[in-house]
């Protein structure tokens, strides 16, 4: 079985004695990377914003169904690309091979700048915030070194700034987690996979417990009547084709009234973000055993499991709390899902079930979840930068492996250093908002690679072919394009900044590729040494 480091077409100039990636990850570990990277803190928080947006129990669950359909189609489509090109770098390689090195670089550039490092920073700081439930001195307001406050300013449709820069006890805890995981993953992919397997199993069990509690002892008559009463009339309220929903255009803009197709697209910002990072396992293709079989399987099994869990968790929330609530309600029941304290719906649900100790239980579950998520993304992300370096499009040292552990040491350290900077700068949450639109664009481009390669390389080996091709991949592209169009119109703060970040990569690519000793040949997939 060929991998990126074994296939002559990938790197023909690598000396035979040079360290190579080692295939040590089995199907369980690969699936654990999918599950662990997807489940972070989103499922515990974003439901409140979705509920406020749709204001309808049916559309609230419908938002998760849309996300499930899109993500499963994406996973089925990526499965063909992963089986066809089981190389380290995954999505970067698919874009490079199909559309050219510029598109691969723009994906890797955006991944490094914010998608991967920003997400790791966000979940690490979330770890610090919830650690504060057990240790009150760990807080975002407990500053150890406050450097500056950057006020907000508007540039066209973009609102920038409005952030605190410095080190507080919460982001210090996050920094400690980011540094620990970067170093731990240096000592072999087996250690990183072991950490991932343990924490993924723990978070899966905690979510299963949350579902079991919500569907049994948590069911509340008030919530049932509010969400499903009147012969399901309450459930379908506001979900008709003629129903209109309020959307604020941009930040501080006018209110627009839109139909259900538009509102479902708008609220996908939260649900798609919660279900994101399923593609991370493709980055580690060079270290997966029998990747032509295990990569597609891990994508399908992992995304299927997480999306089913997300749907049942969200349904469970509705069995415990009413969807509708008052912003300043005195109890969790009065505030409902829409206005759960600080949007922490899961905490409100456990608090309703146990009345005391619920916050502690939920905080413990989120600590496990965020730690496992950060580990999976740390392990996977460095492999993309390794592949970019092999093509002469990233720092030269990042393309070298540790002689003993066969891991991209420099890639892990550079990724970790940028993550720490984002933790300190306070920009990570804003950058993540900005990049959601760009992520969708890259998903559209990558799935379009299926069509490109079916035409250009009809005789290429395809151990797995995308289920439902060409209908399902085309459906994904249509759905994702619709969401992008809607976000451009109604949520410009999520779109234009993302486009700017991506486009900034074009001059960087031109400078970097010009300085390379030789250019990448996308047809042959040849690697090239960069200037560094």
Number of helices, counting only DSSP H or I runs of 4 residues or more: 20
C-alpha geometry: globular
List the helices and strands in order.
HHHHHEEEEHHHHEEHHHHHHHHHHH
Using the 3D structure, state the CATH architecture. Answer: Up-down Bundle
Helix-and-strand structural type: mainly alpha
Low-confidence runs: 1-16, 517-532
Quote the distance from N terminus to C terminus.
31 Å
Helix content: 55-70%
User: Given this structure, which CATH class is correct?
Assistant: Mainly Alpha
- Total individual domains: 1
Fold-level CATH name: Amino acid/polyamine transporter I
Brief summary of the model shown:
By secondary structure, this protein is mainly alpha-helical. It has helices at residues 27-38, 47-54, 57-84, 91-99, 101-131, 169-184, 189-215, 221-228, 233-236, 260-266, 268-274, 291-320, 332-335, 345-354, 358-390, 409-425, 428-456, 471-490, 492-503, 505-515; strands at residues 143-150, 153-155, 158-160, 163-168, 245-248, 255-258.
What can you see in these coordinates?
With 532 residues, the protein is mostly helical. The protein has one domain (27-515): Amino acid/polyamine transporter I (Up-down Bundle). The chain is built from 20 helices and six strands. The protein has helices at residues 27-38, 47-54, 57-84, 91-99, 101-131, 169-184, 189-215, 221-228, 233-236, 260-266, 268-274, 291-320, 332-335, 345-354, 358-390, 409-425, 428-456, 471-490, 492-503, 505-515; strands at 143-150, 153-155, 158-160, 163-168, 245-248, 255-258. It has a two-stranded antiparallel ribbon with strand order 1-4. A two-stranded antiparallel sheet has the order 2-3. Strands 5-6 form a two-stranded antiparallel sheet. A hairpin with a 2-residue loop joins strand 2 (153-155) and strand 3. Helix 4 crosses helix 17 and helix 18 crosses helix 19 (492-503). It is globular and about 65 Å long. The model is unreliable at 1-16 and 517-532 (pLDDT under 50).
